[in-house]
Write a structure and sequence with these properties.
With about 625 residues, the protein is of the alpha+beta class. The chain has 26 helices and 7 strands. A 4-stranded antiparallel beta sheet has the order 4-3-2-6, with no helix packed on it. Strands 1-7-5 form a 3-stranded antiparallel beta sheet. The longest helix has about 40 residues, at about 325-365. The model is unreliable at about 605-615 (pLDDT under 50).
Length: about 625
């Protein structure tokens, strides 16, 4: 990736940009968000947020990227520095590199799951399994001490393999690597998605068991797509819809700016951004909503899906449902489903490598291969804890702080910079230069006023989320923060037990009755606490631990249930946060080194080009 590097074709650019946006969230997160927020009640807020926040952010980030690219910069620190003429903006631009490294660390792990499941679908691992066995398979797979296929440390092997594949493609550059993968991966993703969507559309009630009255795929699609206008007054749904826009369009990360920095100065960005955005929307709303939920409803029923809808359905439920199609179609369904997820994942993770690579190429003259391998090394160092301590909260911390909060903060800041500090007139001129479409003039005030207002509302809503996400009760009865709020996360509000790093007693995190104490054949035991007629919480302990409860005993939150030597989850959570802070500091240090190097070489930090008068 050199300063002369560029996209080989317009279709390659659009597909790469669409691949950046079309990710695992289109198929795993969108259907779940829709189910959890009232189905069709989610659609109207989602579309409104797409039009007044998503599309403007796409234009802003494409404009910011091309603006920096014309001046020889291909990553956000010095692009923002040029726009804001302030040291603050240069170091704020660190988010545009840091976020991608941190997100890639755990995103490649999910990506490796899809690769592993393609393999297991091909060798028909799931064919003889029941629903509970398929669900247990995932738990066994993410446990690095066990193997589902005889491969030692299977989850680590697939993670390293997936990361190596990303690095190798990135080392081939834009047109020879990223663009080529997009031209292959996105069409295959569409083909696989259409096949599975057609199966979802045509399943109907043919998969219903004798006693299931709501097993009909059409009920699932009706629930997802039928608008419910009362959602317009529910702040919870609006915040969920706005949050989904960040995930689905990959805005607020720095990847779009990097890709757009390699667009030629007078090439169109307005129509290209719209094309990538609407292609992503089609995949998410039409394909993403037509696979997991309809197929699951067709076999398991609408009520079951409402109760169990979650990210894990893709891995813990879908392989079991594909078994119902027979050996041939079931194998095809598994390969297509997990192959689709793999292509959606890798086209996004490749984009995450380009900001770091562009920065190291611009500032230190590194070759593409060296920059790619250094990115891989950083991701490996950050990512291994998510693999080794998946059940300890490291994965979730990375996802929350780097993959959620950072996106909103960075998007809000760059919108203010673009519309208010650079100025909306200059920003508008950048968006419309060379445009192959007439950009509606209404978007000029939307970008200046509406979009930053929406972003600020999303940030404040996340910062002060009320208890149980019940906004009406908060306004009526007083504000109590929810554990999921930013403040609640910082203070570990959700941890009601085991709040010390190290302890000799392990405390129950739920209230209930000890249902059983199961002795393991290899040593150790599992305490099962029944919390309701249908819910049980299980705590596994090593052989060195000693149970402090008996079967039938009532326990409360905070009651000691085992004695031994324990490292609690809060330790891993805080170490994950420390790792994120250290990575941010490391990238900021690299930016400082680059600034010193520019001054030593006499390179202007804010070079002016002949086309400045066009702004």
């Amino acid at each position: 990736m050199s300063d002369k590097d560029s996209w080989g074709s317009r279709i390659g650019l659009i597909l790469a940009m669409a691949g950046n946006a079309i990710g695992l969230g289109n198929f795993l997160r969108f259907p779940v968000q829709a189910m959890q927020n009232g189905g069709g009640a989610f659609i109207i807020p989602y579309l409104v947020c797409f039009l007044v926040m998503g599309i403007p952010l796409l234009w802003i980030e494409w404009g910011v990227g091309r603006y920096g690219g014309r001046r020889g910069n291909h990553s956000t620190p010095f692009i923002l520095d040029q726009m804001g003429h302030s040291r603050f903006w240069k170091y704020f631009g660190v988010f545009g590199i840091f976020t991608n490294i941190a997100v890639a660390a755990y995103y490649c792990y999910i990506e490796s799951w899809t690769l592993a499941y393609v393999y297991h679908s091909l060798i028909q691992t799931f064919q003889s399994m029941g629903q509970s066995e398929v669900a247990a398979f995932f738990s066994k797979y993410v446990d690095v001490s066990s193997s589902t296929s005889g491969i030692p440390y299977e989850s680590i092997v697939f993670y390293v393999l997936c990361l190596f594949l990303n690095i190798w493609i990135l080392s081939r550059g834009l047109s020879g690597g990223v663009e080529r993968v997009a031209k292959i991966g996105i069409p295959l993703l569409m083909i696989f998605g259409l096949f599975l969507a057609i199966k979802g559309w045509t399943l109907g009630d043919s998969g219903a068991s004798e006693n299931c009255t709501d097993c009909n795929s059409w009920l699932g699609m009706d629930y997802l797509w039928k608008p419910q206008f009362d959602s317009l007054w529910n702040p919870k749904v609006w915040l969920a819809a706005a949050g989904q826009i960040f995930f689905t369009l990959s805005v607020g990360m720095g990847t779009i700016q990097c890709y757009a920095a390699y667009v030629r100065p007078k090439d169109d960005i307005a129509l290209n951004a719209m094309s990538a955005g609407w292609m992503n929307g089609f995949v998410e709303i039409v394909l993403g909503a037509s696979i997991v939920i309809p197929i699951a409803v067709g076999y398991l029923g609408l009520d079951w899906v409402k109760e169990n809808a979650g990210f894990s359905m893709a891995f813990q439920t879908m392989p079991f449902l594909f078994n119902k199609w027979g050996v041939l179609l079931g194998t095809m369904g598994g390969v297509m489903w997990f192959g689709l997820l793999f292509f959606a994942g890798i086209t996004s993770s490749l984009a995450m490598g380009t900001p770091w690579m562009g920065f190291m190429r611009d500032e230190f003259g590194w070759k593409t291969s060296k920059a790619a391998w250094s990115f891989g090394a950083l991701v490996l160092v950050m990512g291994l804890p998510t693999v080794l301590f998946f059940d300890k909260g490291v994965f979730d911390e990375y996802d929350y702080w780097a993959g959620t909060v950072s996106l909103v903060v960075f998007a809000l800041a760059e919108t203010i910079l673009f519309a208010w500090i650079l100025g909306i007139d200059k920003g508008w001129a950048e968006i419309t230069r060379g445009a192959d479409m007439k950009v509606p003039s209404i978007y000029k005030p939307i970008i200046k006023y509406v979009t930053p207002t929406f972003l600020l509302a999303v940030f404040l809503g996340a910062l002060f989320t009320p208890k149980d996400n019940d906004w009406s009760r908060a306004f009526r009865e007083g504000w109590q923060l929810d554990a999921s709020s930013i403040i609640g996360n910082i203070t570990h509000k959700g941890l009601t037990a085991n709040r010390s790093y190290f302890a000799t007693d392990f405390e129950s995190e739920v209230s209930g009755t000890v249902d059983s104490i199961e002795v393991q054949s290899g040593g150790g035991f599992v305490v099962h606490i029944r919390t309701s007629d249908t819910q049980t919480k299980s705590y596994p302990f090593e052989a060195e631990a000693v149970a402090r409860v008996a079967v039938g005993e009532a326990v409360k939150v905070g009651s000691p249930i085992a004695r031994g030597s324990f490292i609690n989850k809060v330790f891993y959570i805080d170490m994950a946060r420390l790792g994120l802070v250290l990575m941010f500091a490391f990238v900021a240090w690299q930016v400082h080194r680059a600034t010193v190097r520019r001054k030593r070489l006499g390179v202007s930090l804010n070079p002016v080009t002949n086309d400045d008068d066009l702004l």
